[in-house]
Every structure is written in C-alpha cells, then in structure tokens.
Specification:
By secondary structure, this protein is an alpha+beta fold. Helix content is 23%, strand content 33%.
C-alpha cells in the first residue's frame, strides 16, 4: 500500500477533458420554456448537509418548465483524482432521494439510452414518488467516459479502494460525472420536445457517448 501511495505522489493525474463550465453546454434560453438555475443545496444529491463533502469541481442544477411539463438536469463533475469512485457514485436517488422522503416505485439497471443521433452510455432508471407525484429519473455515474453501476454501500468503507481496483484497474484517477435527468413525464413525452435533443447534445459532450466494449 505504501508503494501504491508513493506512485500516485510521483505521477500526476491525467489532463481533464472538460475545458468549459457545465452551464455553457446546455441551453439557458429556449422558446416557450421557463429555465431556472437552482441552488445546489436544493437538490437531494447535494443537500446542505452533504454538499461540502462531495467536493466537486463544477455542478449544474437546472429546471426546465413548460406548462405542465418539467425536466430537471443535475450534473456534478470531478477532475481526475479529485474523488474516489465509490464516494462520487454513492449519492444516487437510491440513497439521497429516499433519505429525502421519496419512495422508489420501479428500478431498472443498465438501460439503453438513445435518441436521434445520440447514443449515450447505458443509464440507471427509476420511478420515484413523493406526495403523490411520480418522477421518472435517468442517472449515470460516468468514470472515464464509461457508465458504472454501484451497489449501495452507504458511507464509503475502508475496502473501497480495493473494490475500485478490482473494477477499474490501477488507474483510479479518471474524470468523473454524476448525471441525473428527471421529469414528471415519461421518456416518450420528452422525445417529442426539441429541448430534449438539445439536452442530449450537451450530455454527449461529457464524453458519455456509447463506445463499443
């Protein structure tokens, strides 16, 4: 373990691929839509009690609304080497939303996700309910451009680094994103909206386009 730590002290992390602010990748003005950037502490993933621990380098928490349709976009970003994979991937709707009073009604893993010219990495999907309202949630933990699913372990444990090595090899300093796309309507309704394609265009720039294994 000492030699392992010494290696990372001597070798710098790889260069970050993201070279612009997350907010610049997604429309902040779109015909017929009301667009609001919310405080990070207002999102379940980054509520005030845990936001300091997440230690991300950039974040967006944006709401798009048109009449009765609502789309939520949340992305947290970590430069290479900033956070452990296990810690960055622990704050999913399966933990944070449930702790904030939501109930999971449906849960699916590694769901193919494509629309128009965009084929993204497989997504995690769930339907969560609070106060009688359903929210359809797609989310990804992107590590070095690939989507990874984590079994919920609660607070990261002392064996986290060993488990990460088994999953990812010795290179544990890749760029990371946690991406959440949510709506009060299902995916078929969203695909009828030009805004939805604009959002996917932005997501594709996060190096999360599907790559053949």
């Amino acid at each position: 373990m000492v030699g392992f730590c010494a290696y990372f002290e001597c070798i710098p992390p790889p260069q970050a691929k993201l070279q612009q602010r997350l907010t610049s990748l997604f429309p902040d003005n779109f015909k017929h839509w009301e667009i609001t950037d919310q405080d990070i502490a207002d999102s379940p993933e980054s509520s005030a009690r845990i936001s300091d621990f997440l230690n991300f380098d950039d974040v967006i928490n944006r709401i798009y609304q048109k009449k009765g349709l609502r789309i939520g976009l949340y992305i947290a970003y970590w430069t290479p080497g900033k956070a452990s994979y296990r810690w960055a991937g622990a704050h999913t709707p399966d933990t944070c939303w449930i702790l904030n009073g939501w109930t999971c009604k449906l849960r699916e893993h590694s769901v193919p996700f494509s629309f128009a010219d965009y084929q993204l990495e497989p997504a995690e999907f769930g339907i969560y309910n609070k106060d009688g309202n359903n929210e359809h949630v797609y989310f990804w933990h992107i590590v070095g451009g690939r989507s990874h699913t984590y079994k919920q372990m609660g607070t990261p444990n002392i064996f986290g680094a060993i488990n990460d090595i088994q999953k990812h090899g010795l290179n544990l300093r890749k760029e990371q994103f946690f991406v959440r796309l949510s709506s009060n309507e299902n995916i078929d309704v969203l695909k009828k909206e030009p805004l939805f394609e604009a959002l996917l265009k932005g997501l594709a720039q996060l190096d999360m386009q599907f790559k053949n294994k």
